[in-house]
Amino acid sequence: MLNDQYQNRKYVIASLALLLVVIYIARLVNLQLIDDSYRDQAEGNAFWRKTQFPARGLIKDRNGKLLVYNKPAYDIMVVEREMADLNVPDFCKTVGITEEFFNKRMNEVRRKRGYSRYTPQPFISQLSSMEYGILQEKMFRFPGIYVQKRTLREYNYPNAALLLGNIGEVSKKVVEAENNDFYVPGDFAGLNGVEQTYEKVLRGEKGVEILLRDAHGRIKGSYDNGSSDIPSKPGKNLTLSIDIDLQAYGEKLMQNKVGSIAAIDPSTGEILALISSPTYDPSILVGRQRAANYAKLQADPLKPLFDRPLMGTYPPGSTFKTANALIFQQEQIITKSTAYGCSHGFHAGALTVGCHGHASPLNLEQSIQHSCNAYYCSGFRAMIDHKKYKKVADAFEVWKNHIVSLGFGYTLGADVPNEKRGYIPNSGVYNKIYGENRWKALTIISLSIGQGEVLATPLQIANLGATIANRGYFITPHLVKGIEGSQIDSSFIQKRVTTIDSKYFEPVVEGMNMVMTNGTGYGARIDSIEVCGKTGTAQNPHGADHSLFMAFAPKDEPKIAICVVVENSGFGATWAAPIASLMMEKYLKGYIPNRKKAMEERMFNANLLPKN
Q1: 550 has which bridge partners?
Q2: Of 106, 56, 118, nearest to 76 (Cα)?
Q3: Which tens digits make up the pLDDT trace of 406-415?
Q4: Nearest residue to 369 via CA among 570, 206, 511, 166
Q5: Alpha carbons 181 and 546: distance in angstroms, whole number
Q6: Contact by Cβ (8 Å): 67, 244
Q7: 503 CB contacts (<8 Å, ≥6 apart)?
């Protein structure tokens, strides 16, 4: 009996001892492997691992003109463990903040992921050199306050704000992302435009400088003479495809107007200008005033932050007739000599699609020259209702696939973060609306003239111009022409061939040339250069129609394709065509001749902004 009691007592004591050992081991694991507080405290007492931010890559235009560079800026860092004797009122006065802001900001710092009382935490970002100079004179009075150097973006031109993008503090979502091994709270990154798309190229690699502290926390110098430091690596420089002088000229032409310009080099897909109006000076989104200025831009009813060439979607109007002319030929519905009559429009029973007065009948080239609605309604009806297709839906899918091959309905894949896909419906859309086999060409006849459900971005319309200029292919539009020490993506080099045979492009090119020599674009012709253009007027259910113009020049060996959209301004020949003509002439000749000075002044001075 006594032996059993002894045995039980032995097991209890052994179990307690084992439990104590397990608890001790678990505590050691927690302290050494999981809980960083003691390690932070120990390292914080002896070292300061000071991040060395790399210089961000420079950005130049296609001609080597410097657009974006760096200037020094300074972040205030705080180590709360050392701030017990900080004279808060004096510190706040020195850096130009209130004590209320100080307390609010400290509470925010404490709530951030990775916060430690023993290591430097970002407190205020982006002090200018002048603000830093004032603080530096009094730093010895402020225990626990340190300064970390970084760079801010500086701009040589007040242009191209949206395509360049800007730099801002990374969000909590970015910091906490599973694949993030670079950003910590307080870091900055590109938020839109080229700065965002090429963030990993531009940002470089961080470095670390390890500094020694004494028993009072004062910096005593580099640890081990800097042998353990890791130098930062600067970001790579970018060469953009844009011509900054052309960009600035386009922004001036579009001032006091709502709309956009997209210009492309057809032979390379390089974007020569990408203008959204109204716009703003990119320098206002730099430094400590960034948040306030961004809020003002967001509140502006004209939406200067809305990237219209990439995000604006419009009915392409009569510019779309060129795409239909290509498809009708490819599908053997028409030849270049096919003629359709026009009696002030297209008439089918009770349905009428109006048209302006012109000679009748017209062949294919003349239909483009005079922008005849009836011609394209007739051609569309002949295709969609043709008996060679089993069903109307099958014919429509053939039409849609051709349209997609011309760059519509999906994003083009440009190196920009905000590109929209536009909209090209498929047969399922109409089956759902009208019922299967219960619709035909007349039901959707407005698609023949670029109205109805079809929507396109200005970049897509400019790309159509480039495709016609190339007689059947395009290269994905892109903003970056070169990357220092690297190659641009292969998708920006390869030709994307359409489903339309190249021989069918010549009648369309001739028709677009006739638009400029003796058609709706005559007033926008360029002396000594053959231009091919197409005016458009896109219906707008919310107000006055939009003025559109698509063109390329020269006719042979083209160097520029362009789309101009001026919202709520009416007929394409009135505003969009003159602006496109001036842009092309400026790019191709480098100057505006005296004959066009009056046109230029009219475009510069016109105010087409909505009254309300």
Answers
A1: 534, 563
A2: 106
A3: 999 999 999 9
A4: 511
A5: 47
A6: yes
A7: none
